[in-house]
Write a structure and sequence with these properties.
Layout: H1 2-12, E1 15-19, H2 23-34, E2 38-43, E3 69-70, H3 74-82, H4 87-90, E4 91-94, E5 97-99, E6 105-107, H5 113-122, H6 129-144, H7 155-158, H8 164-179, H9 188-199, E7 208-211, H10 215-218, H11 220-229, E8 233-236, E9 243-245, E10 252-254, E11 257-259, E12 261-264, H12 268-275, H13 280-287, E13 291-300, E14 304-305, E15 310-312, E16 323-326, E17 336-341, H14 345-350, H15 352-366, E18 368-369, E19 380-392, E20 404-406, E21 409-411, H16 424-436
Parallel strand pairs: 1-2, 1-12, 2-8, 12-21
Antiparallel strand pairs: 3-7, 4-7, 5-6, 9-10, 10-11, 13-17, 13-19, 14-18, 15-16, 16-17, 20-21
């Protein structure tokens, strides 16, 4: 009788389809399952994770890009813990340090965020008094304005009165790292929201959480295992071809399979395709999002190191990367380095050969011997990975599609309307928010 009762309960439990197993889809699927829905998770790719995933093969196991989290990512860290991941074991936590390739730069000490930021700025001994005073005054002005500004402003306009060195060493690197959009076109309103939550939200909010394990182990694989244990139907390698209203407009049919409710957590391109005949206005807004690529070069150089686990690089006409990561210093693979090119459209257009050559040259310029007096390390390029639609361009006044598409049809993803740019935290929060909008079982 118990088995019959269990089968009956499954038959009457509302069915929810989540389309896409990126970080937003995984967050939505876990939240919906927790709320008692019968979840079916569709993923067109062979691996879960979306635009923050590990590659299927290779040793060492590489990711599709070098990602990092910050201490303010409360929703992401909570989701990791829920599916059985200890963030302290898979992430290296360190105070925010925006250092250049010579080890100089902004280092936030522990303590109250406002005082810590002020101390960090005034410790920039290679800056002039005027440069330190200018950034301090600007930050105070942003706080007084509650980190709000005109929606039409770009980051370049917001920081136009700051000295050029302050913009080059602090504002521009933070902008391209957080928004993957150059300061000349990036939304100042979103940038200020990121600064507020990252630098001034509370102790530890600005800490860098740098993965020391492949991305697949941070969330995608543990989340899939958790979903399987809790009865979700997982369908990898299955692309949803069609989405139609159910009979008498009750529920939805995905490839002629009935579901009570649907969350589209796939790419904006896929979501636009599936909703074109159902919600043309929503579809047009999703299709209208413009995207920016990110290039990541993985370099192997045994016996080498960087000045810090993460360094900001001097960008130039033949130096594309803005950041480099030392995986050995992070407690991961010794001798493995990642160079990251955000806002990478010009380099994608130049082609893979030019990009690879420039990145290898740049690596050679910043790598140094592991031990004092050692020989200059020889670097080998393992792979250059181009994520061509890595993030949406976060420009002023951007109109992002809402989470509600139609009755029982919702959307999730970092491109859905919200206060954050295209980040892992934005994706996780949107997935959780979409699950919150589901009709209760």
């Amino acid at each position: 009788m118990d088995r019959d009762a269990d089968q009956l309960a499954r038959a009457v439990t509302p069915r929810v389809a989540v389309v896409g197993a990126g970080w937003a889809g995984l967050a939505a699927a876990v939240a919906a399952t927790t709320r008692g829905h019968a979840v079916t998770l569709f993923e067109m790719a062979a691996q879960a994770g979306g635009r923050a995933r590990s590659l299927a093969t290779g040793e060492p196991r590489l990711d599709n890009g070098q990602h990092l989290l910050i201490g303010a990512y409360a929703a992401t860290l909570a989701l990791m813990r829920q599916v059985g991941v200890d963030p302290e074991a898979v992430l290296r936590r360190q105070p925010l340090a925006l250092l250049d390739q010579d080890g100089r730069g902004l280092r936030l000490p522990a303590g109250h965020p406002v005082l810590a930021f002020s101390r960090a700025v005034w410790a920039m001994s290679h800056w002039s008094l005027g440069e330190r005073l200018a950034l301090s005054r600007a930050a105070l002005g942003w706080m007084r304005a509650r980190f709000r500004c005109e929606a039409s402003l770009t980051v370049a306009q917001l920081s136009a009165r700051l000295p050029s060195r302050v913009r080059a060493e602090i504002i521009d690197p933070l902008c391209v790292a957080a928004l993957n959009t150059p300061a000349t076109t990036a939304s100042a309103a979103v940038f200020l929201r990121v600064l507020q939550d990252a630098l001034f939200a509370g102790p530890g909010s600005s800490d860098l959480l740098i993965p020391r394990r492949p991305l697949a182990e941070l969330l995608p694989e543990p989340a899939l295992a958790w979903l399987a244990r809790h009865g979700a139907d997982l369908r990898a390698g299955q692309r949803v071809q069609s989405l139609q209203p159910g009979p008498a407009a009750a529920g939805w049919r995905l490839d002629d399979e009935p579901f009570d409710q649907v969350i589209l957590a796939c790419s904006s391109t896929e979501a636009a395709r599936l909703t074109r005949g159902i919600a043309p206005d929503w579809s047009a807004r999703a299709a209208g999002l413009r995207h920016e690529p990110i290039l990541t070069a993985y370099v192997q150089a045994p016996g080498a190191r960087l000045a810090a686990p993460m360094v900001a690089l001097r960008e130039g006409p033949d130096a594309p990367a803005q950041f480099a990561f030392d995986h050995g210093a992070l407690g991961a693979t010794p001798g493995l380095f990642a160079l990251v090119v955000s806002g990478a459209t010009p380099w994608v257009q130049r082609g893979p050969a030019d990009s690879a050559a420039a990145l290898l040259r740049q690596a050679g310029e910043v790598l140094r011997p592991l031990h004092a007096g050692g020989r200059s390390p020889a670097a080998t390029l393992l792979q250059v990975i181009a994520e061509k639609r890595a993030t949406f361009l976060c420009t002023p006044g951007l109109s992002r599609p809402p989470a509600r598409i139609a009755a029982g049809l919702l959307a999730a993803g970092d491109g859905i309307d919200g206060p954050y740019p295209a980040t892992l935290e934005g994706a996780v929060r949107s997935g959780r928010a979409a699950a919150d909008l589901l009709a209760p079982p």
